[in-house]
Amino acid sequence: MENYPSYQRPLDEPIWGRSSYDIHHSTAPMQSSSVLTQSPCPHHTTVVQSSSKPPAESDIYRVGIYGWRKRCLYFFICTLTIVVILNLMVTVWLLRVLDISQEGMGAMKIGDDSLRIIGEAQFERPVRFNELSTSLGGTLKIESSEGVNIIARNVTAHQTASLNMKSDGTTEAICDQFEIWDNSKKKIFFANSKEVGMKLENLHILDDGGSIFEGAIQTDLVRPLSNKPLSLESPTRSLKLDAGQDIELNSAAGEIQLSSLNDITLSSKKGAIRLESNDIFISGLPKFEGRTGISHFQLCMCDNGRLFLSAQGADCRAESQICG
Question: What is the mean pLDDT of the chain?
Fold first, then answer.
């Protein structure tokens, strides 16, 4: 090491002042004027010293954010952190309150091709769906304080039928034909603008006063309930039974009564009227007392066809007040 000159550098020199080095040789003379000889040691340390002055404070370039910019950056980071934490807290709270899961939200479960609601659901806007059903064993309840209106439309969006259940208690069905079918796909009732039909084995009218029909009635059979009499009444008008062929009134185990406030007329254009029975009772006929005064009577008829009773053996000629 004695063969190399000594290099010195001030110890108080800053790091940024080491961009250029001034190498000062020491004043100590070289101990040998010959070419540098190799040191017996293969490794050596060279000390370099510089006597240059450090740069001024104004020439120093500082890397980083200082002062009010640094404080604003810290404030922004803290504010952003608080907002993110509050957002996460509100999100977790909404998930807990609304019960949002992978299957749906709360009582509403969303499937691939269906929407299932557990419990009651309230809709404030119109709802459109192809099918509405309940779970197995449940009942479907549709409730509205202003009424329920069900509308059906065709492919061109024109209304074809509607069912309107109003809040005042009236129900309206608007359609071309109204039909009722049973579980076996058998039509039991239909109504359109031309006719109303019922295909039933028995039509039971529960009202004690019976049923009132303003027009004509066409039927194959009129039959009462078991152990109940059949009564055909016309309180103020005539009763007319009309058929293209025969009319048969049959009571297998009861009575047949025909009563009217006015006349009851039995007429036959070509045939005869037959009364076939072991006992025929005609009561309420006017009586004519003969000379004998016995209790047996004979049946007499006036020229106009009126029947009256007369004493047995008496003259059937009656006074004008009877046959008049």
Answer: 74
